[in-house]
Design a protein that fits this description.
With about 290 residues, the protein is an alpha/beta fold. Helix content is about 30%, strand content about 15%.
Length: about 290
């Protein structure tokens, strides 16, 4: 396909000064219904917008390249539901040969063929492990955690290990340490952990949230475990204060030591509507062009 749509962008100043790192939410569609999902369109469906075409996403990726972006994470929703995902990744790599490109997927649609394709393009993979026995409840499906663990192990075997995210909630709190151990022993590249945030769909499931004290107790438990040499990190943000929040949620989940985050400066988000947001949790959009 001729990339005629890219040339004008190279001589125009962008409407938004894009940071070097961006998350591209290719779709709001997902085959999971995780009650803790923080995607903002669960609160404001207008932020999902109509599904963009392949050409529209190619134009956005070209705009990112012309603006100096060198780190793109493709996510959703579930990005592997996009039938044009391979085309978009191939295009991104062709115009950003040295950039860091990644994809965040729940691994439910992963195959050996997909994995070989991602490996060939140098795409970094990341996934989430929402639970073990609690996996069905935490994903709103009848699926098992075993497929996710199998892909974490397979990726490590093929020398392309996955980064793994763990979200702590009341439904998986009792097995959270086991989740960490399972990801570490399966060969995760790194493990990022955080407590469920009462945002997105999570705002309708406050019964699953943890208190600050409960989260601190889980962190201390993790610190006592063997890590198999896998680096890990904790995210202590329980409520995004980059956006206006209800007083009751701020009182319960707010961080007294809050400082403005780097959202909008070191990283940002382009949502399913093709518009820029400064943060994954932000609800204000700006036009790209």
């Amino acid at each position: 396909m001729k990339d005629f749509e890219l040339e004008p962008e190279r001589n125009q100043l962008p409407a938004v000064r894009l940071p070097g790192r961006l998350i591209l939410e290719l779709t709001a569609k997902c085959n999971y219904r995780c009650p803790f999902c923080y995607c903002v369109w669960h609160e404001l469906p207008c932020l999902a917008g109509a599904e963009l075409s392949t050409l529209e996403w190619r134009k956005i990726i070209g705009h990112c390249a012309a603006s100096g972006v060198n780190d793109l994470l493709f996510s959703g929703g579930e990005p592997m539901l996009r039938p044009d995902l391979r085309e978009l990744l191939t295009f991104a790599r062709s115009i950003l040969p040295a950039a860091r490109l990644g994809i965040f997927t729940n691994c439910s649609l992963m195959s050996e063929d997909h994995f070989s394709f991602f490996k060939e393009l140098g795409i970094e993979l990341s996934t989430s492990l929402p639970g073990l026995s609690s996996y069905g409840r935490m994903t709103g499906t009848r699926r098992s955690f075993r497929r996710t663990l199998a892909w974490i192990a397979r990726a490590a075997e093929l020398k392309r290990p996955l980064a793994v995210s763990l979200t702590a909630a009341s439904a998986n709190r009792d097995e959270f340490a086991d989740m960490f151990a399972a990801a570490a022993f399966s060969g995760a590249r790194m493990i990022q952990m955080g407590a469920m945030m009462p945002e997105g769909r999570g705002r309708r499931h406050l019964e699953l949230t943890l208190t600050h004290a409960e989260w601190e107790a889980l962190k201390n438990r993790i610190r006592t475990l063997p890590d198999c040499g896998v680096p890990y990190a904790f995210c202590d943000e329980m409520l995004c204060e980059c956006r206006e929040q209800p007083a009751d949620l701020l009182k319960k989940f707010g961080n007294p030591a809050w400082r403005p985050c780097a959202a909008g400066t070191s990283f940002g988000v382009i949502g399913p509507s093709g518009k820029f947001r400064s943060c994954l949790h932000a609800v204000q959009e700006r036009e790209l062009f």
